[in-house]
Amino acid sequence: xxxxxxxxxCHIKATKTSWQVVTVLLEGKVIGSCNLSFWGGKNPxxxxxxxxxxxxxxxxxxxxxxxCIDECESCRKESLYLTVNVKNKKAIKLYKKLGxxxxxxxxxxxxxxxxx
Length: 116
Fold this sequence. Notes:
7 strands, alpha+beta
């Protein structure tokens, strides 16, 4: 499966917030997406992760998250954060395989971090 990952930069000057809409394309069709946010220019976070159900467990999510990690490395960020629902065991397993670790678990949401 030959996928392409695109980053679309966005910025709000008033809040010094920027983010990138990350899309995963297969033959021109969006099969995955997320946002890579930089709040105040710091503390990047992956948000709103989605992979089309037909393409789950095929490396799409892994490729998308790795692309976000690579982007943070190229911007010389030291860490990357995300949140995940405690019931989403497959996503938690993937994030841990990619090096993320649990920071906070409130019983509903797990906040995870990665040192880059």
